[in-house]
Amino acid sequence: MVTNKLGHIRDNLYYLGLPECPIFLLDGPQPVVFDAGISWAGKIYAEAIRTVLKGRQPSILFLTHVHWDHCGAAAYLKNAFPDMKIAASSLGADILKRPNALALIGKLNAGAKTDLDVFKTLDPELLTEVPFAPFDIDIDIDRNNVIKLSKQTLEILATPGHTQDHHSFYLPAEKILIAGEAGGVYYAPGVVSSEFVSNYDTYLASLRRLSALPTEIFCQGHNFILTGREEISAFFERSINETISFKDRAMELLEEEDGSVERVMSRIKAERYDTITVPKQPEVPYLLNLKAQISHLAAKRPA
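RE: above sequence
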């Protein structure tokens, strides 16, 4: 099954916020949150967490990576829940100290109010007027392969490729996988986007690693949750095939266009973005990621 219905998913897992940029809450004696979406939705996330926890505070906010749409409301949530620790990789912590990175995260969050269609339909009273703010990382997840959450075990998996700092989170007893964009993004039946941005080879290796897990609930970074082994296995097969197909097509176009990254970007966008008729990633961040993808592949061409 594929769903974008917010709320309770199964057992103590909740899908909250906005389907376009969701967060995930795992309730229990030590409630934890996964990802922090975008800054404009900070109030929506906080209220959704309060509704479930009824006065309790989450203990940890785990970030899959520090892209703008996964850490945008982290500072807001930290202010809302002062006892909560923020966990991310050491590389993510380093990125958050770079002025240029912080400026880009802030710029993309600011633009989301007009770039994402969902904000055109929401009551303005639900939105956060506080812009993206820097925040500190309290827990280095590179130092922990497994974290005990009372009676639950959380495995932390390094899954680089979308970004170098990307990590995924797996609950083996419950067979729940929270993987940001390490698995690609499902947009519609038969429509899967390959999301390697920093490195094709490590992305494909991470994708194959995740596909081998016996997952029953797959929480991706945007739009939908997939449930059931058959549905999830089919998704990963499509995602792997799309990743290889994307690389092969980009290499073909780089040959045709004499290595011009800009011309290849234009052709790939026409083929793989403009043809998507369902809600999709805003164009500005899409083009930033696409440029990184094509530039990376161009550098792999024989001299």
